[in-house]
Amino acid sequence: MRIVDLLKKEAVVLNADVSTKEQMLDLLISLHGKVGNVADEAEFKKGILKRESEGPTAIADGICIPHSKNSAVKQPGIAAITVPQGVDCEALDGQPSNLFFMIAAPAEGSDVHLEALSRLSTILMDAAFRERLLTAENVDAFLKAIDEKEAEKYPEEAEGSEKAPEAAQPASGYRVLAVTACPTGIAHTYMAAEALEEKGKELGIPVKAETNGSSGAKNVLTKEEIAACDGIIIAADKNVEMARFDGKPVIKVKVSDGIHRSQELIEKVVNGEAPVYHHQGGAGAEDAEGDGEGLGHQIYKHLMNGVSHMLPFVIGGGILIAIAFLLDDYSIDPSNFGKNTMIAAFFKTAGDAAFGFMLPILAGYIAMSIADRPGLLAGFVGGYIANQGITFASAFDSSVEVISGGFLGALFAGFVAGYLVLLLKKATEKLPASMDGIRPMLIYPVLGLFGISVIMFAVNPFFSWLNQLLYNGLGSLGGANSIVLGLVVAGMMSIDMGGPFNKAAYVFGNAALAAQTDSGYMIMAAVMVGGMVPPIAIAIASWAFKNKFTDNDRKAAPVNAIMGLCFISEAAIPYAAGDPLHVIPSCVIGSAAAGALSMAFGCTLMAPHGGIFVFPVVGNALMYIVALLVGSVVGAVMLGLLRKPAAK
């Protein structure tokens, strides 16, 4: 669907008289109501504000595209305004935005908002086009400019026209291919593709860009194009399919470099400066220029791939188990707590089922990150063996007691399985081409399964011992030792707010939670309260020390506080990025204080996520709230004292 089909004349206002982000959003929402796109403006606004709380929709170059897929929307549509003087919407380039398009999409049906968002992001990359919109004399001229730009960019959609032929390759023979992808697969994916293709036109070098967006890969590169090209640019912030580029010159950079360094990247390929990529069977492109990954970062990336796939099982299972405890009657049978009543038994059984998959999923996706799909089987089975604590002795004699290798055993299984399958790939790569079909269907699964089983049967006694030692140590924690542990893990949650330290503390909390012991529940409570403090502390500081924060900072404070209460530490990242020397130490100390108090009060948490929504299942909930408040106030006061007055 074209932009001009979604944008009605009555939903456009030129040279709008707005000066704040809130006024801008209100005007656009009212335009949607005016033309009948939304049935309930208040409900639609909630969806818009929710999306804004997840991150700014102001992209760069004066462009801002708020959007929401919302039950209040009757029909898909777009509203647009221009604000020549600009509005501060926290754009990625730090500049005010002056060109606004708000997309409204129904809650049910196709992802029209994603299609419209990607299309707008693409056509708005043209600076001359943006200027034409901003200087349009009237709404008709504004709509005509969009219509003509769409017809130019998407000629195959023009009525009665045939798809435009590809640009002829210049006499020099240069041809550059690109793949763009960002984590969300929306705006930056298409902006990078457009920037590279447009820069190629300027340089007289044909460039084709494949977009790995949220709705799948588009403009996919063909085998013939890859074979004929001089090189490939991978502008991506996530893994893309790399095996097809084996033997070709490849440059791998961040998606933002595809937008801002397009000419430099194209010229590197053209000048033969891109290194030849040799695919090793993993998911990444380790030997492509620009990756810059050391061994530590590679291990961290593989670990996070496993953790990210494991978390839904931990969160879903953990919360259901917590509900079971909340609904059960401890006095009926303390030894069967969680299953004493029918309703509690239902939640506990379902939660335990999810927990049972947790470690195999962790190990399986670590292995898959290392060795691609062939690694999944070996990793999954290795994680299962670690979780069950199976050894050679227990396999031969069912009377032998088994102790789970736990989280550490599954971690080991995931990495060993991944590199074992990589070794199998390396060892069989010189087999005749006629056996290529046998390798993934027979050699990798059979030898991978055999190898990881032998290894895990052999090492499980060690991990069982280590796991038992860890749980015994956690169970014996008391007094000052437990307080110090709470202080450390909670403080780590604030060091990088979603980065390696934060994830390490959270993973440790999940491992402790999986033990289903009181000490494990205490650790999880300290971890969560530590992650809740940073956004709340920043919000409190912005209210208490108004002269230390800008108007926009204070306006964002309520959203920050809400996200903190929901255990979303990342809400504090924009503040930490803008003033790390003052914000990070303040948040770390506040979180550490909250974690230490949580431990001192003996607070427990049986769910790994949820913020205030799981407070009903917190042990000693009142003192847990006290710990959260004290830690947040400590962080806020420190931040208020350390931070310099904000510029007017």
TrEMBL record:
Membrane topology listed for this record: Multi-pass membrane protein
GO cellular component, one term: plasma membrane
Ranges annotated as spanning the membrane: 310-327, 347-368, 402-422, 442-463, 469-493, 521-545, 557-577, 589-615, 621-642
Residue span(s) of domain PTS EIIB type-2: 174-271
Gene Ontology process terms (BP): phosphoenolpyruvate-dependent sugar phosphotransferase system
Span of domain PTS EIIA type-2: 5-149
Compartments, as annotated in UniProt: Cell inner membrane; Cytoplasm
GO MF annotation list: carbohydrate:proton symporter activity; protein-N(PI)-phosphohistidine-fructose phosphotransferase system transporter activity; protein-phosphocysteine-sugar phosphotransferase activity
PTS EIIC type-2 domain: residues covered: 299-648
Chief location bin: membrane
Protein keywords: Cell membrane, Membrane, Phosphoprotein, Phosphotransferase system, Sugar transport, Transferase, Transmembrane, Transmembrane helix, Transport
The name this protein goes by in its record: Fructose-specific PTS transporter subunit EIIC
Source organism (scientific name): Candidatus Anaerobutyricum stercoris
